[in-house]
């Protein structure tokens, strides 16, 4: 069975959420999902973040909620226990990468330099968070990286706005961007969910609907037909010299190194989602 396994393809923009009051978590998540953004990153920047994740996981089934600002193996364990469906880190140390691998969840490790990208890629990871995006070189840097590292894809986060997001998304090695502009602090405090919903809808429109993945297939692969990847109608017309197509890169899986490197077979996002409640109960 083939399933879409990439976090980067679920939405053009990932809301990066900071919550001081867990009571705001559920209505905020519903506004984002209703606006067309199912992927939500709740950052570990407040003491109430994990409680917010628990509530969203339990009460907003259409949301795909992850934990961001994951910095230690303990953060990984706590995030899994809270019901996280994916993990995002600002950087990547060997022990943190080990813990995220072992969690069984999809994850986006943070990188800011080519050396960091290579170190993470050695583990079989092909999708990463580029952070802090604007301060670390911006679009010129990430565009230049595509040449020597053509198999890597990124979710740039840090300093990106509604105005700059389209230019970031135009880069070939960018799958989505992360941004906090979708959840303005004053809108969250006052409960202005219509404003949040409108901002989410505007962000969701940055990617044409035809390019959006089948999210239902990701969540419930057992009821979806098998779809063969990387197949396209054959052309009877030979390409002009010098314009031969570049072979498509193999799909990336960010859960464990591929078997060739001694790791367990990679899991899909759907597999990780389907088992999250069991792991949460086990770790409580």
Automatic annotation (TrEMBL):
EC number: 4.1.2.14
Pathway named in the protein's UniProt entry: Carbohydrate acid metabolism; 2-dehydro-3-deoxy-D-gluconate degradation; D-glyceraldehyde 3-phosphate and pyruvate from 2-dehydro-3-deoxy-D-gluconate: step 2/2
GO MF term set: 2-dehydro-3-deoxy-phosphogluconate aldolase activity
Group of enzyme by EC: lyase
Keywords from the UniProt entry: Carbohydrate metabolism, Lyase, Schiff base
Annotated Low complexity bias: 223-267
Annotated segments matching region Disordered: 223-284
Reaction it catalyzes: 2-dehydro-3-deoxy-6-phospho-D-gluconate = D-glyceraldehyde 3-phosphate + pyruvate
Quaternary structure and partners: Homotrimer.
Family: Belongs to the KHG/KDPG aldolase family.
Name of this chain's protein: 2-dehydro-3-deoxy-phosphogluconate aldolase
């Amino acid at each position: 069975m083939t399933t879409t396994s990439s976090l980067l393809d679920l939405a053009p923009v990932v809301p990066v959420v900071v919550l001081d009051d867990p009571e705001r978590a559920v209505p905020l998540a519903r506004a984002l999902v209703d606006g067309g953004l199912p992927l939500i990153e709740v950052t570990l920047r407040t003491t109430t973040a994990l409680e917010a994740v628990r509530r969203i996981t339990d009460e907003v089934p259409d949301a795909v909620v992850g934990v961001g600002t994951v910095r230690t193996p303990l953060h990984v364990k706590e995030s899994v226990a809270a019901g996280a469906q994916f993990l995002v880190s600002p950087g990547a140390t060997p022990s943190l990468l080990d813990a995220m691998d072992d969690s069984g969840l999809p994850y986006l490790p943070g990188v800011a330099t080519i050396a960091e990208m290579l170190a993470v890629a050695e583990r079989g990871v092909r999708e990463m968070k580029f952070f802090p995006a604007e301060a670390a070189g911006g679009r010129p840097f990430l565009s230049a990286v595509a040449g020597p590292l053509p198999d890597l894809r990124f979710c740039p986060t840090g300093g990106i706005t509604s105005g700059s997001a389209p230019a970031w998304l135009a880069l070939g090695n960018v799958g989505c961007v992360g941004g906090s502009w979708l959840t303005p602090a004053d809108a969250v405090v006052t409960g202005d969910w219509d404003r949040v919903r409108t901002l989410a809808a505007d962000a969701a429109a940055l990617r044409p609907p035809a390019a959006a993945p089948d999210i239902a297939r990701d969540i419930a692969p057992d009821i979806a037909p098998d779809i063969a990847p990387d197949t396209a109608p054959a052309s009877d017309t030979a390409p002009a010299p010098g314009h031969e197509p570049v072979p498509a890169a193999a799909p990336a899986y960010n859960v464990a190194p591929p078997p060739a490197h001694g790791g367990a077979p990679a899991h899909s996002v759907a597999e990780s989602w389907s088992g999250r409640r069991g792991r949460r109960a086990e770790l409580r």
